[in-house]
Design brief:
Layout lengths: L1 H24 L20 E5 L5 E2 L2 E9 L10 E3 L7 E2 L4 E2 L5 E8 L4 E6 L18 E7 L8 H7 L21
Parallel strand pairs: 2-9
Antiparallel strand pairs: 1-3, 3-7, 4-8, 5-7, 6-7, 8-9
């Protein structure tokens, strides 16, 4: 019993000393500016598209897909018409998929037509990587066959090899009503 009583003050002293050592070894916080500095990057390049260049696809609903070799900004993009074909009728803005490299755009095409699209035909305000370095310009030309048209979004997603969560249109989050 006497050993236990003597041990308590020794343990208390060790706890205080340990706390003091822990406080001494902890560095003081350093304020950090909210500026992010990105290292220099190469301009992003198109690595894949759907349809592929020169491919003939079924007319109707089409999901134009373009992938880059780097992670991209979600709100920086530019699709333009080019000589050699029509520009497909598309919704205004593409969606950047979760991989950060692939954009999908919901479009409509007609049978037996030639289409041509430029990516970053106008470099200012166009596709850019996370460091805001604009992508190199690229063109895509494809045709539509006279096969039966694609009429459903699910069929268009399957043709573009997209998963269920990679649709070209994303629903806005539901608003939660608050009471005052």
């Amino acid at each position: 019993m006497r050993i236990a009583v003597l041990a308590l003050p020794v343990l208390a002293a060790l706890a205080v000393a340990g706390g003091a050592l822990a406080q001494q070894s902890r560095p003081e916080p350093t304020p950090v500016s909210p500026v992010t500095v990105m290292p220099p990057t190469q301009p992003p390049k198109v690595t894949a598209t759907w349809p592929a260049a020169g491919q003939a696809v079924a007319p109707g609903i089409l999901i134009l897909k373009v992938s880059f070799d780097q992670k991209m900004l979600p709100n920086a993009w530019n699709y333009a018409a080019v000589a050699g074909g029509e520009k497909p009728e598309c919704v205004r803005a593409p969606r950047l998929l979760n991989d950060g490299r692939t954009f999908v755009l919901l479009c409509s095409t007609k049978p037996g037509k030639s289409y041509a699209v430029a990516f970053n035909g106008v470099r200012e305000g166009g596709f850019a990587n996370e460091a805001e370095n604009p992508a190199l310009s690229a063109e895509l030309a494809f045709t539509t066959s006279r096969d039966p048209s694609v009429y459903t979004l699910r069929s268009a997603m399957k043709a573009a090899s997209l998963k269920d969560d990679e649709g070209p249109v994303q629903e806005a989050p539901k608003l939660v009503a608050t009471t005052p």
